[in-house]
Structures are given as C-alpha cells and as structure tokens.
C-alpha cells in the first residue's frame, strides 16, 4: 500500500513498523520511504482479512500526521 506521508515523516517509520508488527497475525513489515510504500505480511490463518483491514486502518488513522498529506502535496520531498 502507499502512504502519501511516509517520505515526509521519517521519524514515524520506526513507530509505524513497531505498531504494525504488534497487530494480530502480522509476520513482517517492509517500509520503502523513497516510494511511499509499505508491505505487510500476515498469517491469514490467524485473522480474517476483514478483521485485519479494520485493525490496520484504525492503526493508520492513529499514526497519520494531521498535516501529513499537506506536507507531500506541497512537494516537500
């Protein structure tokens, strides 16, 4: 998935990875800030896809900076 603010907020990379790894059934997290990309590998045997999506979206809502999108929209790369 792509996070428009990932490259703009490098100090959030570690908390983001750690928080995602704490979600149920998550095995790996790979951040690629250069292309604002995040890959999450999880065990589908341990959680339903719907439950994972809900948990993941809640986490992203909590961690997304209030002005994260504005930073990137202003071409602050």
Classify the helix fraction into a percent range.
Answer: 25-40%
Rounded Rg: 13 Å
**Average pLDDT over all residues:** 86
Distance between the termini: 19 Å
Main sheet overview? 2 strands, antiparallel
What structural class results from the helix and strand content?
Answer: alpha+beta
What's the overall geometry? Answer: globular
For the record, the CATH architecture stands as 2-Layer Sandwich
CATH C-level category: Alpha Beta
Number of helices: 3
Tell me the β content.
15-25%
Taken together, the total number of domains comes to 1
Low-pLDDT runs of 5+ residues are: 69-77
- Fill in the CATH topology: Alpha-Beta Plaits
Description:
This is Similarity. It comes from Microcystis aeruginosa (strain PCC 7806). The two termini are 19 Å apart. The model is unreliable at 69-77 (pLDDT under 50). The protein is α+β, with helices and mostly antiparallel strands and 77 residues long. It has one domain (10-73): 2-Layer Sandwich (Alpha-Beta Plaits). It is globular and about 35 Å long. Strand 1 (26-32) and strand 2 (37-42) form a beta hairpin. The chain is built from 3 helices and 2 strands; from the N terminus they run H-E-E-H-H. The chain is 39% helix and 17% strand. The chain has helices at 13-21, 49-63, 68-73; strands at 26-32, 37-42.
Write the layout of secondary structure elements.
Elements (H helix, E strand, L loop, with lengths): L12 H9 L4 E7 L4 E6 L6 H15 L4 H6 L4
Antiparallel strand pairs: 1-2
Helix pairs in contact: 1-2
